[in-house]
Amino acid sequence: MNIKENILDAWIVVEKLSEGSIDPREPGMMTLEGEIENWEEHFREFLKQKKEREKLSDKAFRNSGIVLFFGIFDFEEVIDILKRKYNLADTYEDRSKSKKFTAALFFDKDLGFLENRFFYTMSGYIRKYGDFPKDIEEAERDLSNQIRGKIDRERNKENSFHSVLSWLLEQYSADLSNFRYKFVRNLDHDAVNLHSFFIRDLEKAKKLKTQNLERYLGENAKERINLDSRKESPDFCPEILEEIMQPKNYPDGRFPGNSDFALAFMQQAATNIAIHDLEDMRSINGPPGTGKTTLLRDIFAHMLVRQALEICSRLGKSIQGELNYWEKAKIGILPEEIARENIVVASSNNGAVQNIVRELPQKVSISEEFLEQIKEADYFTHISNCDIKEEEIGNERILTFKEKEEKCWGAFSMEGGSSSNMQKLLLAIEAMEQELNTSYTSDTSVYQRFLCRYQRMEERKRELQKCWKKSGEMVRLKKQYGREKEIFEKEKEEKRQQAVIEFESLEKEAERCRLETEELRQKFAESVSETAVLEEGLKQAQRNYDTVRLQKPAFLWIQKIFNPSGTKAYFESLTHANDTLTQAEKRKTDRMKEQADLEKCLAEKQRKISGLMKQKQHSTEAVSQWEKKKEKELEMQLDKIKKLEKELPDVRGIDFSQPYEEFQKSNPWSDKEFRIMQTELFIDSLKVKKQFLYENRKNLAMARTIWKKQWEYVSKENGAKIITAAWQWLNFAVPVISTTFASLGRMFANMPVNSIHNLFVDEAGQALPQACVGAVFRSKKIMAVGDPAQIKPVLTLDSKVLRLIGRYYKVSEKYLSEDASVQTLMDDAGKYGFYKTKEEWIGIPLWVHRRSNEPMFSISNEISYNGLMVQGKPKEKARGKAYWYSVKGTADNKFVKEQADFLVDLIARRMKEEESLKEEIYVISPFRNVAQQMARELERIHFTKRDKKGPVNVGTVHTFQGKEAKIVYLILGADEASRGAAGWAVSEPNIMNVAATRAKEEFYIIGDKELYRSLGSVTANKTIHILEEYAEKFIEQEAATV
Questions:
Q1: Which terminus of the chain has a smaller tally of CB atoms within 10 A, N or C?
Q2: Helix 697-708 and helix 419-438, axial crossing angle in degrees, nearest 10
Q3: In 10 A of CB 524, how many CB atoms?
Q4: Selection from 695, 669, 759 nearest residue 300 by Cα
Q5: For 162-187, how does the pLDDT look when each residue is reduced to its tens digit (9 = 90+)?
Q6: Residue 951: helix, strand or coil by DSSP?
């Protein structure tokens, strides 16, 4: 699944289904008007009149012709056919509505059929045959051959052209609604809009293998660095952020905005990554109002400074011709070290492109403190404030300058892409050449002045880098101190607890010993008392014994014979007395031994108690000494930290201890002095650039000539190299050149892969993924800037039809779905980003919002960004107004007249109170029909403003992304009968997110609140809750004020 060729083939089918769009009401489109007797005469007269009216010379008219459109129909028919064929359920998506034609036939000025320009649309084939063609090119060839055969067969007959055309009109049942014809001024340039702008590049990509293309079409990046800046998150890695935010990684230049203000933390991180990381594909996800353009301005400023540094470092400033482009003419090649900083900006629509390239050179974008310096630099200021045209006076060609209101500070950025824009750009460059040749005063001292200023700025960077290292050391020491203090406190507590337990044990043991000693003493006392008694008994026994001895009979041996009984009694008394004495002596001896043992035990117990007391004292002293030692060590660490803090300047480094909101708003290492240095270096780089162009004005002139006449060089062996060399000079002269994706393939058609050095894709979330393929393989470095949480790409196909094509080609929804965009693919390919959810990886996130007040900010933050955005405005300046006006009514194709009347009356009353508010109000709807009807309704009070393309202050949400107004009204439309459409409008947060964040101060919703509340939509319910809660809070605050 997801094989490169399959992805490209699926995208080609999608693009082929987008081909053949036509607006039958477009000026110049001609319809059938009555019966035409002779089509050949009719068209010849038509061509003759066009030549006269447009004042075309014979030379110019030589390449003119006519195109005929057959079988015009609503594209919705094809969607419905495919749904029926493949049993696809209906959706309520508000798709781009369009008309398609089935076939387009081109004829030259002599009405010759141009077979090679015949165009048969895939939509027309499906409408006729009910399914996808196996090979649309083959079907186109067959039909073209059929027409050619008819022409050939009728060639020699009378009225052959009329006959063929009548046959074609009959074949396609031509009438007022389904047939148109149109004059083509130049068949080579004016017919390309019929085809998809991207198919040629998609086909080309199949044969190419560039690193960027493989990554864009491949699986997710192998390595991912999660820039989660929430310190409570398990993915928080401060070491990564510290590394990115080193002062040495900060840009060398800065756009001349107010030097009091720095980029927010993640803006700066994204900028540092963009200019220093080696990654060739990067993406930035910026919610509304988070300063995506501000970030890009600083990146561009840095790139110009790098160019100036390379120029100033070169010994010779004039680049000698080395690439032969015509006979002996040679153009100098802009050195790679300089050209690699050239900038191209691309987007999916003109609005997004114009937003950035028209804003960059505006004087209002320059802070007053730098206006004089910018004026002095004079980077072709006069040219940037003129409409330049070429005129021929006799044989002489001259440039004319029509001065506009002086709004621009210089020719910093211009639109390219379309042939008309490129013509203006080439005229501007020619005007630059004239200025360099006539009025510019050469000043080679700008090189040395730039280098001196650069050295000062680098010295400041080195100082800050030293501070960063010291700060890093300080942070490391603080962490170490914190860890060790924590360990110390923990160990101290443990030791104290251990000591308490140990002391309790010792005390228990000592108490037991004391009790035993007391018991022994009592026993000893008792023993002593008993010994005294025994002593007395022993003495009595001795006396008894002695008495018995004294009673010994005389002549004992005679008595034994003559008085045996008396002798026996004597001996018995003596034995008894002796036994009693012996026993008494034994008892005394035993008691004395017992006393000795008791005395020994008492002495032992006393020693043990003494030992226990000493052990307790020793343990106490040991703990105390350990505490003092550790406290001394910690005190030494703290002294070291304090010493480092004194050595650091006032400029703030990274402080991860700050609350999340403050941390996001911080910008470490960037003080006002440093920002002024960066800005002045950028201004000096403009002077260097202009002087370098002066010294290479011949190369610039040659480059312009080559680019203007590419067809003369493209067939040469080194043609691609010649054209690329020319482009690098043009892009150097105008630092930022923009194009839409639709024009990019044609603009760079003759340039090889990797020939665009730096491509920045603006509003990438709105761009279809296939639109960027040509840009991807032509670019060395690409950065996508956008937000998938805002408006998705405008679909011409039903999302279910997209999935059907995806299944057929075995391509996943990553590449082919209503959610797929250039931004989502670039996010997946990028190394740096953020896990918005467990599964959803986005590019480098920006979080500080500075556009909308409350509650618009909270609506956006809660429904789309999980509460991660931070309000950049002070609280007292961020209080806005918002309310949901619940208006019911009956819907006609989502348009509710009651809601329209309510809104017209509301705006009328406000304009009556303050007429100037008309310029500060946008009216927005999710639905195209509601927006179109509202534009007409609001014309009743002269509110609707229009330009060539239509209303500019009333439209769908899609038309307002990237814009802002003081007041925004979101009219939802729909009723109970169109519940499905209402559900689609709030099924995802994108539409509400964009609508709410267009409003800077006031946001009002008009719609049936109960209907939208009942849909079960998280987006609708959160919005209602926030608005109601804010209204209650506002009333309470008002009451408190009163």
A1: C
A2: 160
A3: 18
A4: 759
A5: 999 999 988 888 887 899 999 999 88
A6: strand
Terminal C-alpha separation, the chain: 67
505-542: pLDDT as tens digits: 767 877 777 787 777 778 778 777 877 777 787 788 78
Q: In sequence order, what are the residues at sequence separation of 6 or more whose Cβ sits closer than 8 angstroms to the Cβ of residue 50? A: 56, 64, 183
Q: Which residues contact 733 (CB under 8 A, 6 or more apart)?
A: 411, 429, 432, 693, 700
Please count the CA atoms within 13 angstroms of the CA of 759 that sit on its side-chain side: 30
Residues 6+ apart with CB under 8 A from 235: 226, 228, 835
Query: Taking a C-beta distance cutoff of 8 angstroms, is the pair 97, 928 a contact?
Result: yes
Q: Give burial (CB, 10 Å; 0-12/13-18/19+) of 1001.
A: middle
Residues with Cβ within 8 Å of 888's Cβ and at least 6 positions away in sequence, in order, are: 896, 898, 975, 1008, 1010, 1011
Mean pLDDT confidence for 480-503: 84
Residue 730, phi then psi, degrees to nearest 5: -60, -45
Q: What is the DSSP string of 146-214?
A: HHHHHHHHHTTSTTHHHHHHHHHHHHTT--TTT-EEEEES-TTTSSGGGS-SSHHHHHHHHT---HHHH
| CA proximity to 287, closest of 785, 638, 724, 661 | 785
How open is the CA angle 46-48-52, to the nearest 5 degrees?
Answer: 115
pLDDT higher than threshold 50 for residue 1040: no
Q: Which two tokens stand for residue 131?
A: 């399914």
For residue 1005, report the phi and psi dihedrals to the nearest 5 degrees: -110, 135
Closest CA to 312 of 194, 493, 455, 170: 455
Report which secondary-structure segment, H or E, holds 348. Answer: none
Nearest CA to 1004 out of 1040, 1031, 974 is that of 1031
Provide the sign of the torsion angle of the four alpha carbons 316, 317, 323, 326, taken in this order. negative
Beta strands 65-70 and 844-845, pairing class: unpaired
- What would the two tokens of residue 873 be? 């405005």
Amino acid, single-letter form, for residue 556: L
Let me know: does 277 contact 284? Beta carbons within 8 Å.
no
Closest by CA position to 169, among listed 68, 55, 85: 68
- The DSSP call for residue 879 is B
pLDDT digits (tens, 9 = 90+) for 831-861: 999 999 888 999 999 999 999 999 999 999 9
What's the CA gap between 441 and 828, in Å, rounded? 50
**Bridge partners (DSSP) listed for residue 999:** 965
The conformation of residue 894, written as its DSSP 8-state character, comes to T
Residue 173 φ/ψ, nearest 5 degrees = 45, 50
User: How far apart, in Å, are the Cα atoms of 112 and each of 44, 109, 888, 931?
Assistant: 11, 7, 60, 44
**How crowded is residue 712: how many other Cβ atoms within 10 Å of its Cβ?**
14
Tell me if 694 sits within 8 A of 442, measured CB to CB: yes
Extended beta strands in 24-81, E state: 65-70, 73-74
Tally of CA atoms within 13 A in the half-sphere of 172 that contains its CB: 29
